[in-house]
Amino acid sequence: MAAATATILLPAGKVTVTGEADADALWLTPAELAKAGGWEYEPEGLCRGPLCVPVPPAASWVRGLGADLRVDLTGLSRHMGQPVAASPERAVWSIGESAEDLADRLRSLDAPDFTLPDLDGRPHTLSSFRGRKVFLLAWASW
Amino acid sequence: MTVITLALDSAGPAAAGEFIRAARPSHPSLIDTRYEVARAYNMVNVPTAVWIDEEGRIVRPNEMAFADNRWIEYTKFDMTRYLEAVRDWAERGARSAYVLDAKERRRRLQLPTAEHALAAATFRLAEHLHETGHPEAAVAFFKRAQDLQPESWCFKRQAWALTDAETFYGTTFQKEVAALGGRPYYTPLDLGG
Q: Which residues from chain B sit within 8 angstroms of residue A5, using beta carbons?
């Protein structure tokens, strides 16, 4: 097991954390974990915004106590239904949104919002066009 | 009605820019280098259009949307009929017969599975490896994403475009289309209305 600076690709962007990699597990202190997807270690469990998840007593993705407490980001993410793809050799972990969250959002029929740049780098947000019909067309150069 | 076009392109402006400059669009013409929108809407090919009403509701989910008939051998559909439908919606809004009822919209949604979600995370990893100077390491993850969601032509064609498809993937777009053996390349368009 080696201390590593790891790049975490998240739905909202990417962050760098320091942890210990063990195959595709990435063991982080609570402080580093908070950087990687917003998980805070609270007495009631792991919380992200209003959502708190109790840590099962036999969770294989938590170890140690007090200052030695570490959480495996990969195990926690998978426990939450989030997909993880990792290249430990290159110290990159990609954590996506769960299929359930993606599907729930689509099933609501509310068009998923996004903000993306044009060629000049100017950002445009779908929801800022409320009040008008939007014909959204995806294309590609390939 | 506002048209928003969106280039799905890992290479961003370097790949999509020349087309946007040539088209000189007056509508917002955006670039999605991380395939964020493809993931959120579960788009598996291009061109794909979604109709969104004034309240931000999807009234026609993902469907193949060419502006003309130059690719009719792939589309097998007279796209002038589709353009008429778009114009009808632009004029008549919710009264357009081409606005689908909620039941039909939900029936047509292509909901992502766990494999699709993992494919998207894997594709993102592959894109990152490619752009940070590890193109060969990226290939293995692009292939894994393709295996997880084989119906995504986006994941295939984007990966093939970033490198020499024949060398690294042992295939080409032309070969893959030929291998369809008459099965449609695009999900057939069902205009309704």
A: none
Q: Is residue A135 in some structural domain?
A: no
Question: What pTM did the predictor assign?
Answer: 0.96
Instruction: Examine residue A124 and state whether it is found in any structural domain, yes or no.
Output: no
List the domain range (segments joined by +) for residue A82: 2-100
- Quick one: angle between helices B153-162 and B114-131, nearest 10? 10
Query: Any chain A CB within 8 A of the CB of B159?
Result: no
Report, as ranges of residue numbers, the positions in chain B whose pLDDT lies below 50: none
Nearest CA in chain B to A81: B114
Count how many domains chain A has: 1
B34 Cβ partners below 8 Å, 6+ apart?
Answer: B124, B127
pLDDT band at A12 (very low <50, low <70, confident <90, very high): confident
| Contact assessment for residue B112 and residue A104, using Cβ atoms and an 8 Å cutoff | no
Which residues of chain B are within 8 Å of residue A82 when distances are taken between CB atoms? 117
A-contacting residues in B 69-108 (Cβ below 8 Å): 86, 89-90, 93, 102, 105-106
- Interface contact flag, A134 B160, Cβ < 8 Å: no
Encoded tokens for B45: 């090919």
Residue A76 sits in a domain whose CATH number is 3.10.20
Asked if the structure places residue A131 within a domain, the reply is no
**pLDDT band at residue A1 under the 50/70/90 scheme:** low
Q: What is the mean pLDDT of residues A4-16?
A: 94
Question: What pLDDT score was predicted for residue A2?
Answer: 65
Closest residue by Cα to residue A83 from B21, B124, B136: B124
Classify residue A89 by its DSSP letter. G
Query: For residue A40, is it within any domain?
Result: yes
Residues within 8 A of B (CB atoms), A 40-99 only: 81-87, 89-90, 92-99
